[in-house]
Amino acid sequence: MAVETTIPTTASTSLGPAANEKDADKLRFIDEVIANADAVQEKVLAEILSQKRPSTSRSTSLAVPPTVPPLRLRSPCSGTSAGEWKLMPTIKEELDLRQLLYSLLIPVMNLYVPGLNKGKALHFYFVKSETRTPGGLLARPVLTSYYKSEHFKSRPYDPYNAITSPTHAILCADSFQSMYVQMLCGLLHRLEVLRVGAIFASCLLHAIRFLQLHWEELARDIAAGSLSPKITDASRGAPNDVHRVRLLRVLLRLNLRPMCKPSEVSYTIMSNMAYFEFLPLELAATCKGDGDVHLVDLARVEGGKEYELVITTYLGLYRYRVGDILRVTGFHNAAPQFRFVRRKNMLLSVESDKTDQAELQKAVESASRLLEPYNATVVEYTSHAFTKTIPGHYVIYWELLVKGSPQGMMPGGEVMERCCLAMEEELNTVYRQSRVADGSIGPLEIRLVRGGTFEELMDNAISRGASINQYKVPR
Asked: What whole-number distance in Å separates Cα of residue 398 and Cα of residue 405?
């Protein structure tokens, strides 16, 4: 894989002038953690090791290779990009670390966007129902733990975090009812809403899609002063918001440059959150958990190189291979900045070809431009390497939306054939060699699915334990 040779760096040693003294304290904390990343990491490791073993020496404690704990119990904890649910250990102190990280977001945003303390925010938050492990331990996502904690429910008023969503709607485990009520309250306060957001971008995209599908019902509720009979739980305990309808006529990372282009987003890992190590990508494929693997410390990664993230946490994970592949894009003071590349082993492959998610996304974007004359867009997509025939071939599933006519005619077969060719032209040289010269890969195929298919896919995943906050369509 090609590696960037020009590494952008941040010339300034501080983040900038704070909007107020409260922000100044937070920004000074960020600067200190970043400027002393290696020292902070050594302190974190010593604290983690002191919980279980007498030795706190970095050199002696890390003399064993990374391991992969068998944490693959199916649970309602967070879903991953690979579509696997994992049961992670957690402790009470984790909420304190999370709250600290969340408190750093607004001070950074205030450097770039003035007026965040004005008006209200339509922020979408969700919880999941709780389950018990075979041993009787409570199992629930970390965000659910936070929203159900007094940290969140008894939070003091903060003009920067004045949200339209009532707490009871957030704490409703039924994702449809929770989304419906939060969207309804946002529409009711629409003249005060100045910003919209969610913890994860995928959740915000889901909210936009939800509005496309249910805007007529929401509008009827507002006009009629009624509430949909589908809402049986999420409106309880929210008299100042949802019941007003009847009275009317109704992680782990920090982006220090939040206004940059999405394609340029890099994250700075806060070195006080856990102990971070990095496995060079060229060694990741052969590392099986034994032998000398030459892990690299946070402060010693090299610009332009790609690594697999390995973490040791306060929660009991020891040298856990997360599965994220990161590229070092630059440095802020002594702290490296990373760009997420892909999930490990998440590749589309028929033969010797290897197509990652970023390359597939680029190909879909290129092909979808051919749909513009038909007022059609690709709402969602996923892919599959079909190998039941010889030669095998890529199958790409598209859900389209025709603007102005949701039930209208979709682009014809000739247009879709051109889209297939456009996608193939964007794929790598190994694919094109196998496709054209060798004939070992068959023609790429695009299959159109009916509207709402990916919504149903998400609902099915949520019913099996996925979190709506973190669910992402498997590409």
From this structure: 17
**Alpha-carbon distances of 232 from 147, 154, 186, rounded to whole Å:** 21, 25, 19
pLDDT more than 70, % of the chain: 80
pLDDT digits (tens, 9 = 90+) for 363-394: 999 999 999 888 888 989 999 998 888 888 99
What are the tokens at 253?
Answer: 């990372």
How do 267-269 and 253-254 pair as beta strands? Answer: antiparallel
Which pLDDT tens digit goes with each residue over 239-250? 344 443 333 333
240: Cβ–Cβ under 8 A, 6 or more apart, which residues?
166
Q: Which of 98, 116, 411 is nearest to 270 (CA)?
A: 98
Separation between Cα atoms, residue 402 and residue 168, nearest integer Å: 36
* Residue 184 near residue 249 (C-beta atoms within 8 A): no
Three-state secondary structure string covering 152-179: HHCCCCCHHHCECCCHHHHCCCCHHHHH
β-pair type (306-312, 445-449): unpaired
Cα(244)–Cα(187) distance, integer angstroms: 12
Q: Rounded to two decimals, what is the model's pTM?
A: 0.60
* Residues across the chain: 475
Q: Residues with Cβ < 8 Å from 275, sequence gap 6 or more?
A: 41, 44, 45, 48, 311, 312, 313
- Residue 340's closest CA among 113, 33, 15, 80? 80
Q: Supply the DSSP string of 434-460, one letter for each residue.
A: IIIII--B---EEEEE-TTHHHHHHHH
Span 3-27, pLDDT tens digits: 333 333 333 446 778 878 888 888 8
**Structural domains present in the chain:** 113-254 (no CATH), 357-463 (3.30.300)
Half-sphere exposure of 175 (CA within 13 A, CB side): 23
Chain centroid, CA 194 distance in Å: 23
Give phi and psi for 53, each to the nearest 5: -145, 155
Q: Please tell me which residue, 367 or 203, carries the higher pLDDT value.
A: 367
Residue whose pair of structure tokens reads 């492959």 in the numeric block: 349
